[in-house]
Amino acid sequence: xxxxPGTVNEIxxxxxxxFSVDPGxxxxxxxxxxxxxxxxxxxxxxxxxxxRGKIFLNGTxxxxxxxxxxxxxxxxVFQNPAAGTCPNLTIMENLSLADNKGxxxxxxxxxxxxxxxxxxxxxxxxxxxxxxxxxxxxxxxSGGQRQALALLIATMTPIDLLILDEHTAALDPxxxxxxxxxxxxxxxxxxxxxxxxxxxxxxAVEYGNRLVMMHEGRSVIDTRRTGKxxxxxxxxxxxxxxxSIECGN
Length: 249
Ligand SMILES: Nc1ncnc2c1ncn2[C@@H]1O[C@H](COP(=O)(O)OP(=O)(O)OP(=O)(O)O)[C@@H](O)[C@H]1O
Ligand SMILES: [Mg+2]
Known about the structure:
Layout (H helix, E strand, L loop, with lengths): L1 E2 L7 E2 L13 E6 L5 H9 L10 E2 L2 E2 L5 H4 L3 E4 L13 H9 L6 H4 L3 H14 L16 H12 L6 E5 L7 H18 L3 E4 L3 H6 L3 E6 L2 E5 L10 H14 L3
Parallel strand pairs: 3-8, 3-9, 6-7, 7-8
Antiparallel strand pairs: 1-2, 4-5, 9-10
The structure holds adenosine-5'-triphosphate and magnesium ion (MG).
The site of magnesium ion has 2 residues, from helix 1.
């Protein structure tokens, strides 16, 4: 992936980088700023098109598929709590829109009692009391509440891959703990394949069944074959330090 090609600001992020995730894997990905994590997620989701290479989802090539079509099979939660939900719409309207992802525009159809009950039951999962607040606008929720809702929305319809880009980074310690526990619950309940980027080494160690550390557009740690058991916060920090020394930082 080349940014600003042909200029003095040209940056090549991935060169011959090959990465695949098996069905059912929950990958936690760490790595220094600028190591290419978000770029990788953007290329997978189609927010960026790579100038070389191919992307496959469930064995089907999606390299040329536009982002909105990939969204039918890929759920994404961003770092910014404002990004995954519409602030001017109510909780109900947000859920209804998500429910109709890839289909007809949700609001026009009206929401029947059965769907409302279903939304309530999903919201109950969050244990934030939102099931009684279906008609309040999402803009009035806290960051943590919005991220929890964004997670429900991203996983409302069946998806092949859940992408989480530092989705707890903007939250206070307690809310990030809650959202992380909820993330695990949703992933286990729906048996999702997930790729989570985080700077929280404890989350990376505790959650997921595979850990990857990125550095300069390549993986310097990948527990795919070895298993995650030997990975600790201390061992990750040690690798981080070795890398920074190599870079002269
Ligand atoms: N739109 C863009 N235009 C130019 N360069 C970009 C663009 N997006 C990313 N880059 C560059 O690509 C490299 C990788 O950036 P990326 O955002 O993927 O890093 P990251 O691993 O997500 O970092 P962080 O931990 O800070 O979020 C960086 O050198 C960055 O400056
Ligand atoms: Mg990033």
